[in-house]
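User: What would this chain look like folded?
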Amino acid sequence: MHSAASPIPHPDETRFVEMVFPEQANHYGTLFGGHALSLMGKAAFVMATRHARQSVVMATSDRIEFHEPIHVGELVELVAQVVRVGRSSMTVAVDMIREDLISGRRKSAVRGTFEMVAVNEFGHPVPITQPTITDPIQKEATS
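Assistant: Here's the prediction, encoded as structure tokens.
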């Protein structure tokens, strides 16, 4: 038996974590910049899609700033937030935070913004709509 779906608000941010393994590193033993950009683009995509509940594509990335190297064995946490919404596009800011798992030290390592555009099935820009969202998680009643 399923409970009735209840509306949930748009998430204010999207967060996820990733371990840095040797295959993601450059010859210095730090996270390869291209892989960092890939992770940040993924976070921007998820945040924009969650916000609009529509198909989105990346139009531009802007002001990607690498502040700290991220070493193999460290954890990275990506935090994405929509900071501007236009007619068919939105700006998503992404912060990549490095964390030493043993000491717990955390520091912002990479920051950037991404322009994401809502598109239709033909890849053409469409207005961002705000549909009613229902909770995708249904609880089963136990008897």
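The CA atoms of residues 92 and 140 lie 35 Å apart. If you want, I can go into more detail on any region.
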